[in-house]
Amino acid sequence: MGVSPAFSEHEHIKKYKSPREYYDIILYTGLGLMERDIINIRSSDAIILLGGGVGTLNEFTVAYDEGKVIGVLEGSGGVSDHIEDILKICHREMNETIVFDNDPKKLLNKVLEAIKKQPQPMSEDERVTGGGDDSCLIFLYSGYIEEACIIPCPSDCKLSEWSNWSRCSKSWRSNTSSR
User: Fold this and answer.
1) CATH code of residue 17
2) Distance of alpha carbon 129 from alpha carbon 131, whole angstroms
3) Are 112 and 136 in the same domain?
4) How much is the pLDDT for 124?
5) Which of 115, 142, 152, 160 is 20 to 30 Å from 51 by CA-CA measure?
6) What's the rounded Cα separation, in Å, for the pair 165 and 167?
7) Residues 103 and 19 both lie in one domain
8) Do 109 and 129 fall within a single domain?
9) 129 and 108, same domain (yes or no)
10) Looking at the whole model, is its pTM more than 0.85?
């Protein structure tokens, strides 16, 4: 599965010059490169860096701050060969979530072992929890998302039985119904 910064397949191929043939599914986010990186990182158990430039550096910093497992292929050039220096310059510590190797197979095994040791979820903030113990959480069920209210809820936030389907809307974009 690929997560594209593009709004459409056309933009994916023409603007971002990204391949189509290597993916079973591509999620076209329309978010551009920076926001797409956050989706990629947050939906992954780990990332592996090889070579890379500014985009790889951004992905590394997001993954580091999110507490994700990071595998670094040593000797592959680019940013990957400078991760320890980058951490020193940024006054960050090397930790057990970052593993290095110059052999891709050994690196993958190290990453898989580190994932087993890493608790899930790795990072949580007020966007997920609603800002405190007395706030509602975000519920995701059957593809429908109900966002947190971010303020204390007047009720216990328990879900009830499904209601009947509403009448189909007649909007200009699509006809939808909800329950």
Assistant:
1) 3.40.50.450
2) 5
3) no
4) 52
5) 115
6) 7
7) yes
8) no
9) no
10) no
Whether residues 110 and 164 share a domain: the answer is no
Pair 14, 92 in one domain? yes
Assigned token pair, 53: 């430039």
Looking at the structure of the chain, the number of domains it has is 2
User: Rounded to 10 degrees, what is the CA torsion of 140, 25, 11, 61?
Assistant: 60
The residue segments making up the domain with residue 64 are 2-117
pLDDT-based confidence at 144, cuts 50/70/90? very low
pLDDT digits (tens, 9 = 90+) for 87-105: 999 999 999 999 999 999 9
Cα 83 to Cα 94: distance, rounded to the nearest angstrom = 9
Q: Which of 77, 99, 117 is the last residue of a domain?
A: 117
Q: Pick the residue with more confidence: 112 or 147?
A: 112
DSSP string for residues in the chain: -EEESSSSHHHHHHTS---STT-S-EEE--SHHHHHHHHHHHT-SEEEE-S--HHHHHHHHHHHHHT-EEEEETTS-GGGGGHHHHHHHTT----TTEEEESSHHHHHHHHHHHHHHS-SS----HHHH-SSTTBPPPEEETTEEE---SSB-SS--------PPPPPP--SS------
In sequence order, the β-bridge partners of residue 26 are: 2
